[in-house]
Design a protein that fits this description.
It is a single chain. The protein is an alpha/beta fold. Helix content is 46%, strand content 15%. The strands form two sheets. It has a seven-stranded parallel β-sheet, with helices on both faces. The chain has a two-stranded parallel sheet with strand order 7-9. α9 runs antiparallel to α10. The chain is globular and about 55 Å long. The protein binds NADP nicotinamide-adenine-dinucleotide phosphate. The site of NADP nicotinamide-adenine-dinucleotide phosphate (NAP) has 26 residues, from α1 and β5.
Length: 280
């Protein structure tokens, strides 16, 4: 049995892919109503909360591998790690990013703290260090649909955007067959380093109307996200990440997705076509 915490962008797709291959999988969620399709596909659903260790222990029964993916709040993910250690779980696949204990971005320091806690347990594990998800662009879709434009503090910086569905495919594959992946860290990206001018060009072609990209300052970007409903601390971390992208921080692509999946990583054009309805 594989346990997937939680059912966000990566977790829900990992569960779907595991069920497609008939692998027994359980998904831990707060709200059962959000995973009816996964339950219909044969996934076990465990109602739980990452802040409540007993609920995680309940979900951990009989589990051989865990896909650990959540908003990466240290106390929450370390609750999962501790529960996995108590249960003698054989492998953890941890979704992470460019973690670093001295990063200016709190989320990257949190990831470093979680990775250290996971390593300290001695549980065999694999780190998936993903570049920014293409799905982040979906947060801009309402503005794009309304104004034919979007803005960011990323300037003209390029980013090896990866489709979260490819991250999920890698997580599912390793969790189902961890042999050879213990102690590995994979750097997951899409095939192309793209600037937001490139993103605007792809969307313009797809939607057959001109989508314009505007460069924003850090403060403008943070305030725009807060106005769109993003909690202020998260808006701050996102705007910091975009500002680093402007300086080349995300301009990396690797061959890890194709090497692990045996097929090309999805391109941004493919992603945009699949989600076209969101931008219309
Ligand atoms: N986004 C990126 O560009 C990017 C890039 C690289 C790495 N990452 C990493 O990927 C991870 C996030 O993955 P994701 O984007 O797939 O996540 P996501 O879509 O934001 O989903 C997070 C899920 O966590 C659930 N959740 C939140 N608090 C919970 C709690 N206390 N108990 C149980 N469930 C809880 C949410 O459920 P509810 O529906 O109940 O709220 C939601 O389903 C993070 O580690 C992040 O650093 C992200």
């Amino acid at each position: 049995m594989i346990l997937v915490t939680t059912a966000g962008k990566v977790g829900s797709e990992a569960v779907r892919l595991l069920r497609e291959r008939d692998v027994p999988v359980r998904v831990l969620v707060r709200d059962l109503a959000k995973v009816t399709a996964l339950a219909d596909a044969g996934a076990e659903v465990a109602r739980g909360d990452l802040d409540v260790p007993a609920s995680i222990d309940d979900a951990m029964a009989g589990v051989s591998a865990v896909v650990l993916v959540s908003p990466a709040v240290p106390v929450q993910e370390l609750n999962v790690v501790d529960s996995a250690a108590r249960a003698g779980v054989g492998h953890v696949v941890k979704a992470t990013s460019k973690a670093s204990s001295d990063s200016p971005i709190a989320r990257r320091r949190w990831q470093a703290e979680i990775e250290a806690g996971l390593a300290a347990t001695g549980i065999p594990h694999t780190l998936l260090r993903s570049n920014a998800y293409m799905q982040n662009v979906l947060a801009l879709a309402p503005a794009i649909a309304k104004t034919d434009s979007f803005g960011s503090a990323a300037g003209g910086g390029r980013c090896g955007l990866v489709d979260a569905r490819d991250v999920a495919a890698v997580a599912a594959k390793i969790a189902a067959d961890p042999a050879g992946h213990a102690g590995q860290a994979y750097w997951l990206s899409g095939p192309d380093p793209l600037s937001n001018y490139d993103v605007a060009a792809v969307l313009s072609t797809l939607l057959a109307r001109t989508i314009t990209y505007r460069e924003l300052t850090f403060e403008e970007n943070k305030d725009a996200m807060i106005a769109a409903g993003v909690p202020a601390p998260i808006a701050e971390m996102n705007a910091q990440a975009f500002s680093l992208t402007a300086q080349g921080d995300a301009e990396w692509v690797t061959g890890d997705v194709p090497a692990l999946l045996g097929r090309p990583a999805r391109s941004f054009s493919q992603f945009a076509a699949d989600y076209a309805a969101a931008f219309s």
